[in-house]
Each structure stands twice: as structure tokens, then as C-alpha cells.
Amino acid sequence: MESKRKTRIGHVVSNKMDKTAVVAVVSIKRHPLYKKTLKNVVKYKVHDKDNRCQPGDKVMIIEGRPFSREKRWWLSEIITRKEVAEIKPEEIS
Predict the structure, then answer these.
(1) pLDDT tens across 11-38, in order?
(2) pLDDT (tens digit, 9 = 90+) per residue, 47-66?
(3) In the CATH scheme, what is the homologous superfamily, with its name and number, of domain 7-85?
(4) DSSP letters spanning 23-74
(5) CA 93 to CA 76: how far, in whole Å?
(6) Sign of the CA dihedral running 73, 78, 43, 55
(7) Terminus-to-terminus CA distance in the chain, angstroms?
(8) Cβ neighbours, 10 Å, residue 2
(9) 16-20: long-range contacts, CB 8 A cutoff, minimum separation 24
(10) Which member of 47, 48, 58, 88 lies 3.0 to 4.6 Å from 74 by CB, making a disulfide possible if both were Cys?
């Protein structure tokens, strides 16, 4: 039987809280009359028990029971990691 839990894919905006990350999910829709593309951004607080995700990571979140007043989603998987540029100290100056 297929799960009835909602899933979303978004990017991690912040992970400054303990065991919590803020994930921004972008949905793009077209206006029915004017055909303009509208972008809607919703931020979800996500339970990340191991503090694995970093800002910029692309993650999949899944709906679940309430963990706190605002946390109703948890981290399902990290799809891609943020690319970190390796800069040597000699290259800065």
C-alpha cells in the first residue's frame, strides 16, 4: 500500500537550531488569465535528528507527526550536497 504522507523537495536555508533545519520549497505556477509565471516559496521547519544537512543542500522532506509547535516535517534524504569551493590561503592574498 502506498504511503499517504506528503513529500516535498527543497533547499536548506538554515541549520542553526539543534536537530532542526529550515527548508525552502519553491512551487512555480502560471496565472490562469495573464499567463505570468508566479513563484511561491514556503519555508518548513524540519526535524534533522543527526544534524546532517548543511545550508544549500537539496533535500527531500516527509510529513509526519508534530514534533513541536512548528515542526511537522522530517528529513527523508539528502539528494545533493552543496558544492564547497576549496581555496588555499595563498590564493586569497
Answers:
(1) 999 999 999 999 999 999 999 999 999 9
(2) 999 999 999 999 999 999 99
(3) Nucleic acid-binding proteins (2.40.50.140)
(4) EEEEEEEE-TTT--EEEEEEEEEEE-TT----TT-EEEEEE-S-SSSSEEEE
(5) 42
(6) positive
(7) 59
(8) 4
(9) 18/51, 19/47, 19/48, 19/49, 19/51, 20/45, 20/46, 20/47, 20/48, 20/71
(10) 47
